[in-house]
Structures are given as C-alpha cells and as structure tokens.
C-alpha cells in the first residue's frame, strides 16, 4: 500500500483561476452590446403575421406560412 499525502493548503492552487474563468461578465462588457432594433413586422403582438392567401396563385386553403416574413404558399406552389 502506498502512502499518499494530500495538500490541504487552500491558499493557492487552481481554484482562483477556475473562479476567474467561470465568473459572470463585468457590467462594462454587457453595456457595450447593443440590442438589434426589431423590424416593425414583428412589433405587432397578437396580429396574424402571414397572408391568408397563397403568394404564388392567390388562392386560400391549406397554406405553409413563412416564419421570417408574411409569405404563405401551398405545398404544390
């Protein structure tokens, strides 16, 4: 059986480095990041964003709606 000695001195080691790596960002860093202005299309809460008719043929029915713009299409169009 081997003799293993543990260093129980907590005044050094890797812990300060680990804490520095996982600490939250400083206030200065977060204030520099500006929020991208939102397009007016997405500022209408509660409104239907997509058209009620197909953009290709103009007919209604079962439409596939785009998540990024107001376009709507039939699967076949």
UniProtKB/TrEMBL annotation:
Q: What organism is listed for this UniProt entry?
A: Leptidea sinapis
Region annotated Disordered sits at 26-50
**Which terms does the UniProt entry file under GO BP?**
negative regulation of transcription by RNA polymerase II
Listed Basic residues bias regions: 33-48
One term of GO molecular function: transcription corepressor activity
Identify the taxonomic lineage of the organism of origin. Eukaryota, Metazoa, Ecdysozoa, Arthropoda, Hexapoda
Gene3D superfamilies, per the entry:
Zinc/RING finger domain, C3HC4 (zinc finger) (3.30.40.10)
Q: From what superkingdom does this record's organism come?
A: Eukaryota
This protein's GO CC annotations? Sin3-type complex
The protein's name = PHD-type domain-containing protein
């Amino acid at each position: 059986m081997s003799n293993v000695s543990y260093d129980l001195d907590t005044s050094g080691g890797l812990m300060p480095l680990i804490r520095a790596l996982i600490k939250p960002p400083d206030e200065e860093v977060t204030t520099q990041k500006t929020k991208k202005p939102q397009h007016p299309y997405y500022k209408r809460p509660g409104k239907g964003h997509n058209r009620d008719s197909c953009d290709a043929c103009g007919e209604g029915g079962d439409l596939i709606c785009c998540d990024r713009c107001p376009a709507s299409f039939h699967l076949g169009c």
